Task: inverse folding
């Protein structure tokens, strides 16, 4: 602040204070309870003689920037996690979930156990069991029930098929009625002789 | 506590119109700082001081609303006299018009409250 202006302000104030004191008015009533330095700085600042001090930074703006930065960090983290999650599907260890395989279970009711088992296995079923015979079954057992039931056609089932094979009276093939013989060496010679000798 | 709040409110109210009051006391005849305080007191504004007149005069001078000149005083250093400039007179007229509008609006609101209290 130029000394000339400072001296001018001081002279003005001195004159007024002197006249006020002559009137019985104290300097405190004229200038108030404010600090003299602050009063002088305020006066000079209002006159434009000194640069005004920078206003204190608003703390509110700092908090606002902190909140904005935190939001941006969280958003970037979320984007990164999304990118990693989509990329992990094509690389690295992953857990594959095998959907249940659907196969067609044939109708094997009436079949002998061995043939029924082969038929079921050939249909693509790799897990089956014959109930009632935990210790094994014999081939001459006839399947009298299955679960799930197979219709005339095939029925899809995701459950493990169960075959109820029970012993049944063996049908005696009347091979003699049908002209069928049990294949034995003697029967084979007899069949050859019959073909050779017309009746 | 209540007195302090009342004085604070009064101070805030005066802060908005004190520049108009200073222009009003120098529009007809120039005056120096202490004399302006005396004129305000004579016109009914007694609670002016507190170091607010001099900085306000500095702002009015900076904004060109008052003009200053020096006159020799009786047995003392020359005094700095303030007078209303043409722009100061216009600002005073506009300020008085605005003050009367605000005063009327505030009175209409506060008048209702006073009636209820009474």
Result:
């Amino acid at each position: 602040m130029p000394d000339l202006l400072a001296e001018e302000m001081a002279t003005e104030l001195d004159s007024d204070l002197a006249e006020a004191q002559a009137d019985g008015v104290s300097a405190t009533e004229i200038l108030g309870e404010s600090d003299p330095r602050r009063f002088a700085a305020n006066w000079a600042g209002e006159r434009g003689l000194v640069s005004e001090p920078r206003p204190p930074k608003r703390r509110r703006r700092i908090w606002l920037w902190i909140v904005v930065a935190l939001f941006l960090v969280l958003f970037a983290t979320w984007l990164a996690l999304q990118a990693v999650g989509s990329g992990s599907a094509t690389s690295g260890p992953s857990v594959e979930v095998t959907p249940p395989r659907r196969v067609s279970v044939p109708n094997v009711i009436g079949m002998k156990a061995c043939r029924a088992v082969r038929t079921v296995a050939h249909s693509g079923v790799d897990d089956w069991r014959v109930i009632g015979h935990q210790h094994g079954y014999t081939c001459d057992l006839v399947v009298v029930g299955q679960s799930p039931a197979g219709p005339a056609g095939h029925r899809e089932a995701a459950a493990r098929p169960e075959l109820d094979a029970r012993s049944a009276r063996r049908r005696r093939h009347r091979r003699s009625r049908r002209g069928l013989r049990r294949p034995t060496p003697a029967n084979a010679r007899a069949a050859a002789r019959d073909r050779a000798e017309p009746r | 506590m209540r007195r302090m709040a009342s004085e604070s409110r009064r101070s805030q109210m005066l802060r908005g119109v004190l520049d108009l009051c200073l222009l009003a006391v120098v529009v007809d005849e120039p005056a120096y700082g202490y004399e302006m305080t005396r004129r305000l007191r004579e016109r009914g504004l007694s609670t002016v001081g507190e170091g607010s007149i001099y900085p306000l005069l500095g702002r009015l001078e900076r904004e060109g609303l008052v003009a200053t000149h020096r006159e020799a005083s009786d047995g003392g250093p020359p005094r700095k006299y303030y007078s209303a400039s043409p722009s100061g007179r216009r600002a005073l007229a506009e300020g008085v018009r605005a003050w009367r509008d605000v005063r009327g609006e505030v009175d209409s609101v506060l008048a209702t409250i006073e009636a209820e209290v009474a």
